[in-house]
Predict the 3D structure of the following.
Amino acid sequence: MRVPCLVLLAATGLASLASAQMGAEEFDALTRGQTFYYGVNGSEPYGAEEYLDNRRVRWSFLDGECVEGSWYEEAGRICFVYENRPEPQCWIFDRTGGRLVARFDGETTATDLYELHRSPEPLWCLGPRIGV
């Protein structure tokens, strides 16, 4: 009888280590006031997002250009709309190994972004382009 109990305890412990999809409240509490730097394949830099009050965000592909946006929860996904791209981009967020992981939920090939670093410092953005 001890072996089945140990197997059950081990399985329960492993299940608790598995990541769980984040809802809006947990996502907001984790991200607000922080800038997250994301990578693909675990280490290749992709971009960064600064999470502001009132579910506002600022995104950059780390080229100094930033775009403003906002996020909301829909059907368990965190969806973003940006000033230059009003159609929603929805992601499923969870934490794996203590880091945020985002999986794109759309019609294109699955894209996973992994938290490389987070900082309380604001995102570095160049000023607006002036001229013709």
Notes: Residues 2-17 form the longest helix (16 residues). DSSP finds two helices and eight strands in the chain. The mean pLDDT is 85.
